[in-house]
Specification:
It contains eleven helices and 13 strands. By secondary structure, the chain is of the alpha/beta class. The strands form two sheets. The chain has a seven-stranded mixed β-sheet with strand order 8-9-7-10-13-12-11. The chain has a six-stranded parallel β-sheet with strand order 2-1-3-4-6-5. Strand 1, helix 1 and strand 2 form a beta-alpha-beta unit. It is globular, with a radius of gyration of 20 Å.
Length: about 350
C-alpha cells in the first residue's frame, strides 16, 4: 500500500517513518512536514540517515489523495482542517486529538474551538474496539496517557471490581510527549535531575478521553483525578492507577492473587499486553521502541484499594506503533505486522 505521513517532522512522525521502513506491506510514498518542507529528512531525524538525500515535501491535498492510507501526526485542531477536503476513499489514522472525543462540550472545554466529530477509537485491546476498527477506514489513535490508563483500569472496571466514580492516577512521561516545539521548560538544563507536575488540578486534555473510554467499559460513568508528571527522560510513561474496591461486587477475600488472575485472563489473548509475574514491576526501559505494555496489580488491604502499575513507550504504543497496529487492522493485514512487544531494554 502507498502510505503518507502528514506531520512527519515531529517525534511521532519520525517513529512512524522508522516503523514504516521495516513494514512488509506498507510503502512510504509521501512525507509532509509544514515548516520543515524541503529539509533533509536525515537532518531532522538522524536515525533515518539511510534515506540519503530524501527531503520532506509540502503539505498538499493532491499528494495526500495519491496515497491509499495516511497517518496524520499534527497538533490538536490541525488534522481536521486537511481531512475535511480529503478523498473519502483514503484510509486515515489520526494520531492527533481531533476525532477522539464524543462530547463536543468536552472538546470545547479541554481543547477549544469547534469539535470536528468522532471516529472509531483505536485501542484494540478494549472490549468491542477491535471489530469496530476492522470495519472502519478512519480511526482516531488514542493519546499516550489515555492508552496507558485505559489499559490499566479496563479489566477491573469490566468486572465491577472497582468503584469507577473516583479513580486516581499519577503518571510520569518522558519529554517527547510534549512534542518537538522549543520550550524553556523542556531544555536539558531545566529537566535533568528533576521531576515536576504539570497541567495540575485535573486540567490535562486526556482526561475526558480516558473517562469516555472507561465509561463504555464500565457501562456507567467513570471519573478520574489525573496528575501528570514530566520525567527527565526522552520517552516512556509509567502510570499508577488506584481505585476503591467495590465491596458489593467483590469477595471479601479478594486480594492480589485474585486481581492478578483477573488481569491475566482479561489480556490472555493480547499480543502486546504482558501482565507480569507477581514479583516483577513495570519499567519504562523494558518497553522503549516497542508496542508493548507491561502491567502489574496489587490489592492494598490497608485502604481497600486496587493498585495498577503500567508502562508503555509514549512514542510506541502511545503513538506511532499503535497507529501502525490500527493501520494493519483497517487494511486487512495481520495486526502485529511490522511490530514487536519486545523493548530495546536499558
Amino acid at each position: 500500500m502507498k502510505i503518507g505521513v502528514v506531520g512527519a517532522s515531529g517525534y511521532s512522525g519520525g517513529e512512524l517513518i522508522s516503523l514504516l521502513l521495516k513494514h512488509p506491506n506498507f510503502k512510504i510514498a509521501y512525507l509532509a512536514a509544514g515548516a520543515q518542507a524541503g529539509s533533509l529528512i536525515a537532518q531532522v531525524h538522524p536515525q533515518l540517515s539511510s534515506l540519503g538525500a530524501a527531503r520532506f515535501e509540502a503539505t498538499e491535498l493532491h499528494r495526500m489523495n495519491q496515497c491509499e492510507l495516511l497517518f496524520f501526526a499534527l497538533p490538536p485542531g490541525e488534522s481536521a482542517k486537511l481531512i475535511a477536503s480529503l478523498n473519502p476513499q483514503v484510509k486515515v489514522v489520526d494520531l492527533g486529538a481531533d476525532f477522539r472525543l464524543s462530547s463536543s462540550t468536552a472538546w470545547e472545554r479541554y481543547y477549544g474551538g469547534v469539535h470536528a466529530g468522532t471516529w472509531t477509537y483505536g485501542l484494540p485491546e478494549i472490549p468491542g474496539q477491535r471489530g469496530a476498527i476492522i470495519n472502519s477506514n478512519r480511526v482516531a489513535n488514542p493519546g499516550c496517557y489515555a492508552t496507558a490508563i485505559a489499559l490499566a483500569a479496563a479489566p477491573a472496571l469490566s468486572q465491577g471490581v472497582i468503584v469507577g466514580e473516583d479513580i486516581v492516577v499519577v503518571a510520569a512521561s518522558g519529554t517527547t510527549g510534549a512534542g518537538r516545539r522549543a520550550s524553556t521548560n523542556l531544555l536539558a538544563s531545566e529537566i535533568m535531575g528533576s521531576l515536576t507536575s504539570y497541567k495540575f488540578g485535573g486540567v490535562h486534555q486526556h482526561t475526558p478521553e480516558i473517562e469516555e473510554t472507561l465509561s463504555k467499559v464500565a457501562g456507567s460513568g467513570v471519573t478520574i483525578s489525573f496528575t501528570p508528571i514530566l520525567a527527565p527522560m526522552p520517552r516512556g510513561i509509567l502510570a499508577t492507577v488506584t481505585a476503591k474496591l467495590n465491596k458489593s461486587f467483590t469477595n471479601p477475600q479478594f486480594a492480589t492473587r485474585q486481581a492478578h488472575e483477573l488481569y491475566r485472563d482479561f489480556y490472555a489473548q493480547e499480543l502486546f499486553v504482558t501482565v507480569l509475574e507477581e514479583t516483577l514491576l513495570p519499567k519504562t526501559s523494558a518497553v522503549v521502541g516497542s508496542n508493548g505494555v507491561q502491567i502489574q496489580v496489587a490489592v492494598d488491604s490497608h485502604t481497600d484499594r486496587l493498585i495498577i502499575s503500567v508502562a508503555i513507550d509514549n512514542l510506541g504504543k502511545g503513538a506511532a506503533s499503535q497507529a501502525i497496529q490500527n493501520a494493519n487492522l483497517i487494511s486487512g493485514f495481520p495486526e502485529a505486522s511490522g511490530l514487536s512487544a519486545i523493548g530495546l531494554g536499558s
